[in-house]
Amino acid sequence: MRTRFPPIDKGRENIFELLRQLVEALKNKEIQQAITAIHTQLLQATYKQFMEEETDIDERCTFEDDDDEDDKQDDQGDDDDDEEGKTYTKEQMHKHKHVHILLRQRLTILGDLIRTGDEATNAVVCRIISQIYDSHFANEDVLYAERAIPEDEKVQNTGENAAAPA
């Protein structure tokens, strides 16, 4: 799913292209050095994209008070406004950043598995790595784009842009 915000969507396209190359290299049983090189590029592209997203989040999302007690009160309050897409909350921001950390850790672990060179392991890695970003790209990124990025900064959702897959 696209966010319609070019900096996020272009980074995601780059990540998907590297994912495709990695899966293809694993399925074609290319030499270990080539597979490792693609994984390293994927890890670097992911890190770069996530850091750019987090910089954008930090610039757009400022909260008056970082006191944990206020967070607890906000969490217990009426969440109807937030659920209807009105604002991007501090909790959502922290979750988004936390998911970035988890994804990078998982990608690193999968890279360690790839480096073993075991064919059975690589087959499992192929299935897992193809899905590793799905939830984040469909949930946290879209939520951030909907609630924090003004419409005038987004690409209009017309024609082939509307039908293009994420």
From TrEMBL:
Transmembrane segments: none annotated. Residues 59-92 are annotated as: Disordered. InterPro entries: Hemerythrin-like_sf (IPR035938). The keyword Phosphoprotein does not apply. One of its GO terms (molecular function) is metal ion binding. The keyword Metal-binding applies. Belongs to the hemerythrin family. The lineage of its organism: Eukaryota, Metamonada, Preaxostyla, Oxymonadida, Streblomastigidae. Gene3D superfamilies: Hemerythrin-like (1.20.120.50). Residues 64-84 have a biased composition (Acidic residues). Keywords: Iron, Metal-binding. This is Hemerythrin-like domain-containing protein. It comes from the Eukaryota.
